Each structure stands twice: as C-alpha cells, then as structure tokens.
Amino acid sequence: MSRLPPRTLILLLYSMLCASSKAKEDIVSFHREVLPILRTNCVACHKPGKSKGGLDLTTHAAMLQGGDEGQVIRSGDALASRLFETICGDEPEMPKESEPLLPREIDLIKRWITQGAIEDAASDTGTRRPAEPTTYRSLPSVNSLAFSPDGSLLAVPGRHEILLHHADGSGVVSRLAGDSPRLESVTFSTAGTFLVACGGAVSEFGEIQIWDTRRRELIRSIKESNDAFYGVAISPSNQQVAVGCADKLVRVFNIADGLEVMRCDNHLDWVFGTAFTNDGLRLVTVSRDKAAKLIDITTGHLIDDVNMSRDPLICLTRHPIENLVATGGAEGKIRLFKMEPRGGRLSEGDNKEESFVREFEHMASPIQSIAFSPDGIHVACSALSGEVRIFKADSGQRVAQIQGGRGPIFALAFTADGKQVAAGGYDGRLRYYNTETGGVVKEFNSVPLP
Ligand code: HEC
After folding, report:
1. Does 130 score more than 50 pLDDT?
2. In terms of residue numbers, what domain contains 303?
3. Ligand 1 pocket residue status of 36, Cβ below 6 Å
4. Are residues 113 and 152 in the same domain?
5. Per-residue pLDDT tens digits for 157-184
6. DSSP codes joined into one string, 94-153
C-alpha cells in the first residue's frame, strides 16, 4: 500500500472508516454488482442500436423485456432463465467470442435472479445524495479547487457536495449536493456557465457531475465503472468531458447526452489526469504506471507515449493558451511537454524530435498538483510535504517558495487575475498566497463548521 499515491491512500483509509454496516451484504445489488458485469462483458453486442438477438442489456427494464425469442429472465428462478443458461456450462454461449464470465460473476447473477431480479433504486447503491446537507465535525481534506473564469466563485469539493465560495473568501454561496461521497476534481467550462466534477466511491462507482453554475442545478450525472474517476477535463468546444479511472481506463463522454464516445485501455495502472489539445482531437493522460500518453479521441488509439518519469505520475495540467501540458508525480519534478507526437517512439534519453520542453527545479517530495496562472506566465506546484512553489513558466525561474498548511497540499488554483494562488489540502483550510512574494493573503475553512 505504501506505493499508492498519498491521496489514494487517504481515500482508501477514509472509505474503510466509512464502510457502512455489512447487514445488506447478501442482497445482490443490480446497479452496483450486476450491471457492471454486463457493461464489461455483454453490452458491446447488446445495446440500443446493436442489440444482438433483439436483446438490450443496458438497463433493467430492457433486460426484463427480453429479446427476439422472448423473456430471458424468470424472476426468482435462475435455472429457468435463458440469460443464466447462456453464461453457464463448460462452453458457455455468452459472452460470444470471448472468455466466459468468472465463477464469482456467474454466482452473483444467479443470486440476483434467485432473489427476484429486482432493480434497487439508484439510491440503494449505498452511496447517495444525502437528504440533509452534510454537517461537518472536522474539515475534510481538499482534493481540488477551481475559480470561475469571471473570478467570482471558487468551487471546492466537500463530502457528498461541492461548495461554491465567494472567491474573496467572504462566505459560501451555494452547496451542490450529489451522490459521490468524494469528488476528486472540479473544473469550470470556458465561459463558466457550467461546472464539472468527477469522483465516485471506491470499488462502487465512478461519477461525473455536470452543474449549471447560475441555476445551481445538476444538469447530468454520468455514472460508469465500478471505481472512482479522477482528473476531469472539458474539451475546448465544451461538448465533451474526459476522465481517468482506477480501473485503468480513460473515457470521454458527450455532455449533451452522457454517452461514452471514447474509451482507451492503454494504461497499465490508475489514470489520474486528462487534458484535451486545443483542437479537441487528442487527449493527454497520466497514470500511476509512470507514463504520459497522447490518445486520438476519434479512434481511442494511442498515438505516442512519454516514459520519462521513474515514478508514478499523479497530476497533469494544461497550459491555458499554448498546446502544452505540465506533468508531476512521485519523482518531484514538473515537466513541460508539447501535446504532439514526437515523430516515432524514442528510447529514453534520446532527445531528437522530443515533445519535451522543460523540466523545473526538483522538489524533494511527490508533487500533488500543478496550476498555471490564467495568462500562462506562472506555474505553481504543491507537494506531499506541504510545500508550494511558484515558477515563471517560460524560464523555470523560481518566484516563490512557501511552506503551506499542515500536511500535504493536494490542490492549487490561481485567481482569475493571476495575482494570487489558492492552496488546499489535508488540513482542510484554504490559503491564498501572493504570486510574486508568496506571502499569505487570506485563510479560511473549506467547509462550514458548526
Ligand atoms: C460478441 C457479441 C456478443 C457478446 C459480447 C454477447 N452476446 Fe449475447 N448474443 C449475441 C448474438 C449474436 C446473439 C443472437 C443469438 C446467437 O447468435 O447466438 C446473442 C443472444 C443472446 C441471448 C439470447 C439467446 C436466446 O437464444 O434467447 C442472451 C440471453 C444473451 N445473448 C446474453 C448475453 C450475455 C449475458 C452476455 C454477456 C455475458 C452476452 N450475451 C454477450 C452476441 C453477443
């Protein structure tokens, strides 16, 4: 476990502490347990528009409706259910042309049908939007920060919610409650009209929330996977969102209808960050597998990868104007890259046609977050040690070095005028620093305490 990035470690400990009673353990959940199996193994051939045998396995209703040959599930009787029959035996009929389901998966489906093939309400999936706003007894750690482009709001994830603060720290404007107990990353659309956050519940679900900033309403919740999403990015057209996931996949969804438009399985470990190129055609991603990858969004294929880091990569931030990204991770180095292929794979150390631009001063501690000022002049990074450093992006010259709060700093964001940088982390306090001097300008709690 010591190899996990600290944020993840804290997340795991947290979810262990919060694990609810095991009383419901034996009841199989359609949404949490059955649907993920079907999504991974069946829906490629059984979805609207491509329903082999006339069978759509994407929703509970469609599944009970059955296919061309009639119903495939007889509630309460797995052995009499055609669907169960097709996945059993030495050479199961389904999933067609691929490996049989695992015994554990077959058993779950069997138990689910035997228990009545019920669809648990989405609210029964253990983690859901709380009826009352969360009451905090202590400050939760701050995972992410984003200022609205007009400079008026600061979005900060809390527990089961996003808090919208007045950007000047004078108070909480609104609390946006949602299903995910933890949101890992928040960002505003270019015009600031909507806000996107991603997160979920470890080993349960990943969620992307899209909020109308003005009306403070949830426009859409996209729930996929059975693990949490990280590192959300909005495309330049504001029509797509990308996320990384603990299941090693990179996914892109349409904001308008929530449909998945791309999936890439090229990473070997958790994916923590995503960034679109200016033309919206490509995506850069970073992972605990130490690699940064350039992906073609139309095909989902890998174009190129950079394996310069010797240790897991934790964060990725794109330059606000140029087609550049900065990566950071356990090695303690910010590296700046062009978001374009290097003209073929190169072995490490070979700098010919490199997309590599610059490396910044080494931090003695793993980098947890990186932020550019809106004009692209400054870049700041924060570390596990609680240190924050600010550099000139074009020369790498250090402008300020700050010993931030108590404990790791996980999140950074520059104010809209670029004059201050806000930092948050383990101690749950938000601190604003002067970009030029590093001096503390203000400090307040990330969530309201009683
Ligand atoms: C590669 C494509 C493919 C995948 C993946 C796949 N199926 Fe099918 N499935 C088909 C086709 C094609 C049919 C139509 C009947 C046939 O050709 O056997 C079908 C038919 C069915 C039927 C109806 C059979 C009948 O005769 O009534 C069931 C039930 C079914 N599939 C369940 C599943 C389940 C459950 C999974 C996942 C574990 C799955 N399928 C995965 C292609 C697929």
Report:
1. yes
2. 146-445
3. no
4. no
5. 999 999 999 999 999 999 999 999 999 9
6. -STTSPPPPHHHHHHHHHHHHTT-----GGGSS----SSPPPPSSPPPP---EE-TTSSE
